[in-house]
Protein 1
Amino acid sequence: MPGPAPAPEALAVYRRKRDFSRTAEPTGGSAPEAPGEPTFVVQIHDASTMHFDFRLEVDGVLKSWAVPKGPSDDPHDKRLAVPTEDHPMEYADFEGVIAEGEYGAGTVIVWDEGTYRSTAADHHGRQIPFDEALEHGHASFRLNGRKLQGGYALTRIRQDGDREAWLLVKRDDARTSHHGTPNPSRARSVHTGRTLKQVAAQAGEGGRGGR
Ligand code: MN
């Protein structure tokens, strides 16, 4: 169940980092409240360092983590996930090139998308609200994506002021496999089938951003 619209200040950090006259990224605040289960999206971002951006809809925004190696479907892989600022819901559809000199400059593709269901519980196994689980530093959920499926957990392993490190790990369940993560340079957009390179080339031809 998607929560209420985000608090007005929820996207302040996101907006402060960007010059919307120079980037085609969404300003946020115009996404209608969607019924049904909350959204997740995984983008691949060829920025100064290549990484995956893992985002879960919570309370009307996309809670976000940068995952350098990307999510893995192998429960043995513990993937570092570093929190980044909350992103607007509209960001789930963003695919294109962020102009040089701008925050996050580089190419973005939507690698996977779908919905998730919270399986968050306290250490007695009692269900707890997902936002509360994140606050406590351990949230589990089931992904129903086009590529990613099954149980995952995000666990905070380090907190040092504003700097946090989390791990994103596949749960050992029926949806387990051992493919790991595809090579980001060869991976294709779930929206358009394009690689990062193709998106970058087409943006060069026809202007930046867009789908
Ligand atoms: Mn990123």
Protein 2
Amino acid sequence: MKSLNISTKIGVYTYKELDQSEKKLIDAAKAAALHAYAPYSRFHVGSAVLLANEAIVSGNNQENAAYPSGLCAERTALFYANARYPEEAVVALAVAAYTDGDFTEEPVPPCGACRQVILEAQNRYKQPVCILLYGKKSVYRIEKISDLLPLSFDAASMGSE
Ligand code: THU
């Protein structure tokens, strides 16, 4: 038997160690979390997207009484960024979450559906999307979304690329 081994490199930083542009993106994600509409889970998530033109577009989770009709922060931010600036590549995306009166100690990883949507942006603009996951204790930095979604399904899987 042969095997394929997949490894993921995740940089672990403190907020202080990040550079100014990374701090700015995380701060935007934290600010967006405070305006989330999350009356059901009370888990307030914010996301901020940095575009090639240096614009930052943020979003947050939008819940619904019919639970599946809601949307995660990452997709809210990313879909709006792509709708508003369709020509601008997505450079980086930050995530932060606020619950029980404070931001989480640990970084909050994006759900599978959000990873798939971020991957589409990476493929669409042919540029790595760097992911910054904020936690009070540590910040995870992942160089490209494909590192969080190995063996992914994309256009190439259908033989159309
Ligand atoms: N949520 C996000 O917005 N992003 C994530 O990465 C994880 C989960 C939202 C969905 C739902 O509104 C709440 O957090 C609890 O799952």
